[in-house]
Inverse folding.
């Protein structure tokens, strides 16, 4: 190990990380060339492939630091978008929740093999890779605020679409505006409790309010970008004589051409992911307008924030008293800059960057803000969700999908028709306690809790 | 270890692994590919369209990853399932397979697979008992 490993969490969560052997992966990441300060793990850490899920590692751009596609993951810029409305659960939405979830089930393409809301030709996909959310905006999809309140303004200007393979373009062309499957979902939620009134007010959140949370990523395009570049890095790691304890940690020095190509392609895929959630939000507007027979604008449907939890970014951080350019990998971890940071939208700069934390299906979700101390503690990072506690195989043996569906209905949660057989793999018992995770993040000085939301409707692939 | 060919799924906290075995490497790779098709819910009855798949990598485990990733790409980019997967030849750097693809008529009921990974990747030979491969998928 070149640096120590630091795991944030309660005693119970750290015990789980040790039992799961995820701490071994934290130690493996600590061997990456150029890594600075520590190999971090968030409280929702669990065993991944190479990097642990919930891992944060920063490498020094100017000191032979490397970039590792495994530190981003296959679902590049997978993340969460939170929309708010002016509607209250009582009396506005409760009487119509079944119709609303049914309408969302129709307007949100989901599951394997489904086409997205916007079908693109190869040339248009390349435009999305370059322009991010500006592309759908130029086609009349969404509103300007959707860019202003998205991480990075909805586009990473350093993207290099030409480094995205034709294969990736082919996979992505039919998928813009689709949810995906697995642990991706859309939920209608109610703000159950406000814990930080000033921050909540800045975000336009109030108790009893109906919101929509979307968890999705860069779809097959992002997956292919990672596949393509991991292969290149694997060959290069071997050729350069870089020793990594797990082959999935294949990497290249940031000064190397292969690293620059991957960074550019990864940023392009991130632009696709942001555009994907932007177009999905348009499907949300369509469903709400159809059910409530008012415009989305009248309903107050608006973006609170959109943030990624699988990304590597070149950022400036203070290390040993001086400013350094670092490549910060966040794999199943969310950026959480504190108050005053210039990358936080002006509307939120006084409160800190919003962080949207999806709970596992049927459990609470949270809105957080970055803490003043997050930069010094974790390069401005916090958790991304509940973190898995159980394999899919074990989850399926615990309960059937039908039993999980019934349990959701018993909680009063409306489920859009889905492949129920797969529900058990994503059931709450397969995940850690998200409430304990966010409490640990607050206790560790990474982020603080602004609001807790509960689901009333679930749309899954 | 039995010399009969087959596969099983391996537990992983977040993802899924495949262990496949057979008397020869090409057959073991074939079984890994069939496991992938079953996981995705795209092992379908034929007849379909026969086509050739060719991949290369720097070593034998890399060939396994490249092969599975090629099938994932083919399934997703062209919306097809697989009726037959026959590995014609495989070396420590190349593989040629003939696959019979079937156009998907409805959404598959399996797991979406993002990619095959290099995590704990292994191709092992057991003297007198054949070849065993292990690969983890990001689902």
């Amino acid at each position: 190990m070149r640096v120590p490993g630091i795991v944030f969490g309660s005693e119970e969560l750290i015990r789980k990380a040790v039992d799961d052997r995820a701490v071994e992966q934290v130690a493996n990441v600590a061997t990456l060339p150029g890594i600075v300060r520590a190999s971090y793990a968030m409280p929702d850490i669990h065993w991944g492939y190479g990097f642990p899920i919930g891992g944060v590692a920063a490498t020094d751009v100017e000191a032979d630091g490397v970039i590792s596609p495994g530190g981003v993951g296959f679902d590049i810029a997978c993340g969460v978008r939170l929309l708010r409305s002016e509607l209250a659960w009582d009396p506005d939405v409760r009487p119509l929740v079944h119709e609303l979830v049914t309408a969302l089930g129709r307007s949100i393409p989901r599951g394997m093999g489904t086409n997205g809301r916007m079908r693109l030709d190869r040339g248009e996909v390349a435009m999305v890779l370059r322009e991010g959310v500006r592309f759908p905006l130029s086609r009349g999809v969404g509103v300007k605020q959707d860019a202003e309140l998205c991480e990075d303004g909805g586009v990473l200007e350093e993207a290099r679409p030409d480094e995205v393979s034709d294969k990736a373009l082919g996979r992505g062309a039919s998928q813009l505006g689709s949810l995906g499957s697995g642990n991706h979902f859309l939920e209608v939620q109610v703000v159950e409790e406000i814990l930080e009134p000033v921050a909540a007010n800045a975000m336009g959140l109030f108790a009893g309010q109906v919101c929509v949370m979307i968890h999705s990523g860069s779809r097959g395009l992002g997956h292919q970008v990672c596949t393509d570049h991991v292969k290149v890095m694997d060959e290069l790691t071997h050729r350069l004589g870089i020793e990594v304890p797990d082959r999935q940690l294949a990497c290249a020095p940031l000064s190397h051409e292969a690293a620059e190509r991957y960074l550019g392609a990864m940023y392009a895929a991130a632009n696709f992911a942001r555009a994907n959630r932007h177009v999905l939000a348009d499907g949300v507007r369509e469903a709400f307008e159809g059910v409530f027979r008012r415009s989305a604008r009248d309903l107050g449907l608006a973006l609170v924030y959109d943030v990624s939890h699988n990304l590597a970014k070149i950022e400036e951080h203070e290390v040993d008293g001086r400013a350094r350019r670092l490549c910060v990998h966040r794999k199943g971890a969310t950026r959480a800059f504190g108050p005053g940071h210039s990358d936080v939208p002006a509307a939120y700069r006084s409160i800190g960057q919003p962080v949207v934390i999806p709970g596992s299906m049927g459990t609470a979700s949270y809105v957080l803000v970055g803490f003043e101390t997050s930069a010094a503690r974790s390069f401005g990072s916090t958790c991304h969700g509940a973190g898995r506690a159980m394999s899919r195989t074990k989850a399926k043996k615990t309960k059937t999908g039908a039993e999980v569906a019934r349990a959701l209905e018993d909680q009063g949660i409306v489920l859009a028709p889905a492949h129920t057989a797969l529900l058990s793999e994503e059931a709450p018992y397969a995940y850690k306690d998200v409430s304990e995770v966010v409490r640990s993040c607050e206790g560790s000085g990474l982020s603080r809790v602004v609001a807790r939301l509960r689901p009333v409707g679930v749309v899954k692939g | 270890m039995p010399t009969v060919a087959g596969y099983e799924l391996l537990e992983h906290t977040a993802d899924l692994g495949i262990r496949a075995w057979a008397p020869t490497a090409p057959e073991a790779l074939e079984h890994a590919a069939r496991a992938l098709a079953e996981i995705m819910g795209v092992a379908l009855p034929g007849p379909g369209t026969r086509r050739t798949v060719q991949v290369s990598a720097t070593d034998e485990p890399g060939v396994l990853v490249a092969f599975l990733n090629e099938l994932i790409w083919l399934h997703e980019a062209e919306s097809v399932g697989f009726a037959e997967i026959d590995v014609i030849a495989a070396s420590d750097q190349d593989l040629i397979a003939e696959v019979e693809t079937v156009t998907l008529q409805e959404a598959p009921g399996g797991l979406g697979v993002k990619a095959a990974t290099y995590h704990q990747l292994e191709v092992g030979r057991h003297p007198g008992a054949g070849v065993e491969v292990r690969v983890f998928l990001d689902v």
User: Anything to note?
Assistant: Chain A touches chain B through 47 residues (CB under 8 Å). Chain A has 15 helices and 17 strands. Chain A has one domain: 5-389+431-460.
